[in-house]
Specification:
Chain lengths: ~120, ~120
C-alpha cells in the first residue's frame, strides 16, 4: 500500500445485471487497479447487480463475477449487496460470498459520503 | 461528498428504476446530503398532474415528491424533454424547469451523479 497524498477513497455503485452487461467487469478492472495502487475501494451492488454477490453464480469463459468478487475481497475492498434487492431475488445471507455484507440505503448513502470519487454503472 | 444529483431518466412506471431512484433520493436527503432530483427523458412524465398509479398497484409519485421536498431535496425537470413530449406547463405539477445548459452546470458542479 503506497498511501500518501494521492490516496483516494473510490466508491462504486453498480445497478446493471452482471451476465448481460459489461459494467460489472469494467467496474472490477477499475476497482482492482485502484486497490493495487493503494487506494481504498467500496462497492455497492444495487438492483440487478446483487446477483454477483451470490457465491453459487458460475459463468463460463473469461468473465467470472464470482472470481472477481473474491479477488476484490482479498484486495481488502468493502463490498455491500443491497439487502432488499437480494430479498426480492431470493438471495439470502448464507448465499453470499464470505466478506460481502448485506447493506441498506443507509450504507449506500454512507458510501456516497465516504467516497472522494464515485463511479456509477447504471442503465 | 457534498452535492449529489440523482438523475432519473426512465419512465415512472414499467420498471422499478424510477421508484428505486426516488426512494434512494429520499434516503439521501433524509441523511442531510445535499440532493437534487433531476428528471430527464421519459422520467419527465412523472411530473404530469392527475395521475392514478393505484390502478396498476403503484404508489403516488406526488406523495413521494412531497416527501423528497420535505427532506430538503430539490426537484428539477428538463424543459426540452417536456417540450419534446408535448407536455405543457399547465399539465405538470409545480417543479422547477431548467434548460440543457443549466443541467450541464448542475451535473458539473455535483460531486457525484447516480443514474436510475
Amino acid at each position: 500500500m503506497s498511501g500518501g497524498s494521492n490516496h483516494m477513497k473510490l466508491g462504486i455503485i453498480i445497478q446493471t445485471e452482471p451476465c448481460t452487461y459489461q459494467d460489472f467487469g469494467t467496474a472490477f478492472e477499475i476497482a482492482r487497479s485502484a486497490l493495487r495502487k493503494g487506494h481504498e475501494v467500496q462497492v455497492f451492488l444495487y438492483d440487478e447487480a446483487v446477483i454477483a454477490a451470490n457465491r453459487a453464480m458460475k459463468m463460463t469463459g473469461k468473465r467470472q463475477p464470482n472470481r472477481m468478487i473474491m479477488e476484490l475481497i482479498e484486495g481488502k475492498a468493502t463490498i455491500f449487496a443491497c439487502g432488499a434487492c437480494c430479498m426480492f431475488r431470493g438471495i439470502t445471507k448464507d448465499m453470499l460470498h464470505g466478506g460481502v455484507e448485506m447493506g441498506g440505503l443507509t450504507d449506500l448513502a454512507e458510501t456516497v459520503v465516504w467516497a472522494d470519487r464515485l463511479l456509477n454503472f447504471a442503465h | 461528498m457534498q452535492k449529489l444529483v440523482i438523475l432519473l431518466r426512465s419512465s415512472p412506471y414499467g420498471t422499478t428504476n424510477f421508484g428505486e431512484g426516488l426512494r434512494a433520493a429520499i434516503a439521501f436527503a433524509g441523511m442531510d446530503i445535499d440532493t437534487t432530483i433531476l428528471l430527464m427523458d421519459d422520467a419527465v412524465y412523472s411530473t404530469m398532474r392527475n395521475q392514478n398509479p393505484a390502478v396498476i398497484g403503484m404508489s403516488s409519485l406526488e406523495e413521494a415528491f412531497r416527501s423528497a421536498s420535505e427532506f430538503g431535496a430539490r426537484i428539477i425537470v428538463h424543459s426540452e424533454a417536456l417540450m419534446k413530449r408535448g407536455i405543457a406547463e399547465s399539465e405538470i405539477v409545480g417543479v422547477k424547469k431548467v434548460k440543457t445548459q443549466n443541467i450541464a452546470e448542475l451535473v458539473h458542479d455535483a460531486d457525484a451523479t447516480i443514474t436510475f
